[in-house]
What we know:
By secondary structure, this protein is α+β, with helices and mostly antiparallel strands. The chain contains four helices and twelve strands; from the N terminus they run βββββαβααββββββα.
Amino acid sequence: MVKIEIEPTALGLPMSCVVVSSYEPEQGGNIAAIAYCAIVNVKPPMVAVSIRPSRHSYSLIRAAGDFVVNVPLADQARLVDLVGVVSGRSLDKFDLSGLTRATASSVKSPLIAEFPINMECKLLDMVELPTHSLFIGEIVALHADEAVLDDAGRLRPDAAPFLVFYNLGYFAIGEKVGEFGFSKASADDNS
């Protein structure tokens, strides 16, 4: 494989593609498509989302002290893109997109009913970065459509084609190519 050095960019890393909902006092909620999202701790479970200070969601999350990470399916890419290219300052993105606000169990911010996974997060910390601010939230409640759960009530990684964002494009997560630890099991079999 021949490597060529190119201009450094964050676009070389496949990213999650989520929709963050935040509490908005007049409309009840705002939504924003976010590609900069990651799990950052296991116990307690924590997630981080990175948002530009100029975005409407930035001030809403700071004021409310919570947010919801809503995980869309690949076939919902058009909705995700729609809520990512318009501002909630001047219009209600729930009305625009036809998505439904659902009441959360532990936070003020609404869930998005149509998305199969919703993570309610209490804001724990915020880190100011050069272009974005990193909001770190503890996942205090998780809601999952039964279609993405196995018989034991655990999330099924093969349940649906989830949406990812890579180099300014939307993609469906592809086929499963291994199980955690399968390389060690293979090595043990060969010894």
